[in-house]
Records
---
Amino acid sequence: MKQRLLFPRQKVGLVWVGKPVRCSSQEGCSNSRAISHSRDRTNELRAIDGLVTAHSAVGRYERAFDLLEQRLTLAKELQNLREELKSFEFYAQLYKQQGNYLTARNFYERAIILARTLEDSKQEVQLLDQLTKMLQRK
């Protein structure tokens, strides 16, 4: 049976993500596409993370928030609570940087709820620590 190379690539901002996938049957190709698509979506989250960090570092908060909205939507589409939690943490950090402590607190609390849902006590403690430090400083 002849093998085919698939290039399930997707443009994320200015970057193309994805790797060639080898498959030898139609069913195998379909499964490979699904797995590859999932990896591409995960890579898209990572690309967005980098862009959010870059935009916020130079004070382009509006663009960073737009990207975070895309990130949260993607995490929800993937039904990935851990990535949703990370999105909420990013939101909290950006609002904190801007001095909007009330909104930052709201996002920290939402992230803490997800950490509890995921039974991730380490993440929960880290978020509670970040929230406490923020509240002590304001």
---
Amino acid sequence: MSTGPSRISNSELPRPAWALALCTLAILLPLAGCGGTAQRAGSSRPFPDPAGTSLHGSSRQPPSEQFQLGVRYYKGDGVAKDSRRAAGLFREAAEQGHAGAQYDLGLLYLKGEGVALDHREASRWFRRAAEQDHIKAQLNLGLMYGKGDGVDKDLRETLRWFRAAAEQGSARAQIYLGEMAFRGDGVAKDLSAAFRWFLKAARQESAEAELYLGIMYLRGQGVAKDPRQAADWLRKAAEHGLPQAK
């Protein structure tokens, strides 16, 4: 189906992703270790068999190994799945400053897996990881400040942590900042700033950002009106799976 500006109406703006994400923190940003295998960086040799490891890990192990063993227990990768044991291993590594373990421990507190549900404790661990430039922790902490979940609601802190993640190249954070500026949600409405953030995310092939750019070029919002550019960005958004752009 062809894509063209005439197909986009005022009602077809995407729903604000950052606001929707307030309700789905743990689903949006999964455990840091779940995308890979439990192996040492630069080696195909697996970690030692965790049998016999104490519930809270072993101080003889480097924090990176404690973290990866925690991932194995969380996933049930070669061992019986045990979220409580995973939490103990994450805690041991987190207390030694491992940012991935701090983030994952925060998620376990957020979801009440292997530990008692405690959103304030989740925010504390997210903060420790975020202060080490852990992007997912920065995003989750920003969302928690946006909702007032585990922390006092503070959109200035939301902006701070979204900006920290965006400046590290997070397309998701760039979209959140663009949406807040576009809608004047927690900040003064600034369409030029929104356009800049969406453009950064669109250059990473974010379909949501491409759709926003198409609409903004079509309407002349934050940028000079340009139907050809609008059509190009809407076509890209459609190619990347957004039906609204068709």
---
Amino acid sequence: MLSEWEWGVGAQAKITIPHSQDPVGQFSLLFDPSPLKPWFGVAFPPCNKLRAKSYCPLKRTKIKSNCNDGLDPLSIRQQYLPNSRFLIPHSPFQNMVDYLIFLAISTALFALFALGLNLQWGFTGLINFGHVAFMTLGAYTTVLLSLRGVPLLVSAIAGAIVAALLGLIIGFATLRLREDYLGIVTIGTGELIRLVVNNQELPVGDTWVSGAFGVQSYPIPLSTEPNLFVRFGMIGLLTLLAAVTFLTLWRWIRITQVSRTTDLGKRTTSKQEFASRLGVGIVLAVLAVAIYISGVIGLYNYNPKAGLMLVLLLVLALVYWRLEILVRSPWGRILKAIREDEEIPKALGKNVFWYKLQSLMLGGAIAGIAGAFFAWQLGAIYPDNFQPQITFDTWIMVILGGSGNNIGTILGAVIFFAYDALTREVLPRIVPLDEARLGAFRIMVIGLILMVLMIWRPQGILGKKEELTLGK
């Protein structure tokens, strides 16, 4: 019997299974793909020929297989996916809701990851090309501890602590080096961590398993459906978060209407800055409304990914709030002084090395928390999920939004994933190229955008040129 499986656009893979002349319909598969990496292969017994080798979450892929035993979705669910709740029909509207939740998780996850890098580079001037190492340790520490029965919250905190300790070790070894040598050492550290995880055996539960086989079947937050009262409480939390977001955006836009005193004693208002903030605020507000509506629907009908999205957004809001307080404090002003010219704070008696070390450790801890959410989003982690490309994609987000600006970093993540989603859908209809060349063309286009941005606004979309060394 010939069975055709078609993966389409969505937060979870959609499958069309025609059995001979009798189509079964669309179903959601258990596995969730990484937003940046191809999906790993999977085979269902007894038909082991059926595999997805180069799955892309935003592009349709068809795989055909000759299977004499047939592929009945109910039997697959009962025999091969006993813990799965995902083999259920989906309407086009529900597909769109799931897809928006998927994009919200991906964007918030990498915004959180980029905030750690922005603290290290944007505020302190530390060139870190191995930022993914902190994510790797955070992800593996969280899932391995949770498989040993440690509560998820404690596991995630432990992952952040281990990532911060890695920052301590890297700091003692590299922070006395010049900027270019620091970048070389950090990118080497990132690859070293990945290769060690890939080649060593890991304590997965009660057994030791080769790291190359990955880690699967670990607990995920809010994976079980709560009762109606808890779901309404979660919707209330999401509503409160949305209200705080709109209020923060309004205050952020309004602050530019306050006149400032220049060196000449005149009162002036930056109309250009107000216009840019107004445009960014409108875009972020529209996205917040879309995420809020999708989140309410996903929480009411309960999709576990909607629960994960709520937790991630709360953590992102908390980290952003605390970082904003920190960078406006005397501690943050010393970091900015180190970024511009570390000889000045040295002359004022500040321990520059210790402040750099604190920044590296705190940024690493934030990346470790992002690693925990990355593992929970994927549902199964492998060493290849933590390639150096993740670090460089995050650099794009920080530079695009404006280094040294936390809202700019979040905006950079939004633009990056919006570009990624749109070009995967629109470009194949415009540019007649195969999949491999199309991927290279997309990278070339984003490189061109960055070049134009560096000429037009070298400080990024929301960065302040007068605060950066490049403004001198």
---
Amino acid sequence: MKIDEAENFDANVQMMQIIVGALTAGVVVFGVLVLTILDGGNRPAAANQPTILGLPLLTALALGFGVITLVASFVVPRLMVEGGLRAIAGGSTTDETKLTETGERQVYPANDVGRLLPLYQTQLIVASALNEGGAFFGLLAYLIEGNPAALATAGVLVAVLLSRFPVADRVRGWLDAHLERLAELRRDEFSTGP
């Protein structure tokens, strides 16, 4: 079955675009608020703030958290996908039943694209949420302490979040690559046997 023939492919891609767009919009709107309306508020004096490596405490924490979430946003989804692929390759196939025009039930074998699309969506949401959380923390640290390093942390994470925006060609490419990986896992499992 071709990827474009998969049921609801375009609807799935559109839903993923809405999710990533909403995650991005939330950070951007908060960033605009921080930079315009809320900026210039009463911040604690720099002399009274504890520091880590020369940075104010929250800024240093936001930078550290930003690095951790950035790395995790690449590592965790890969682990999820690998586990999901192994589960799909080793699991039994589930068939799909649909009503025909005459009212009879027709059984269609489950397809791998239909199984991989939710896996792609899940790993995309997890990776995007990790980037979003780090960006929010950076903006919050900037709001409280006013250090540009916190704002830069948020900016980098928003840029990575935007780079994840799912377009149909990207999703197709991911599915093609992972269909091949799934076939490899099945071959490996078949050759080793029970």
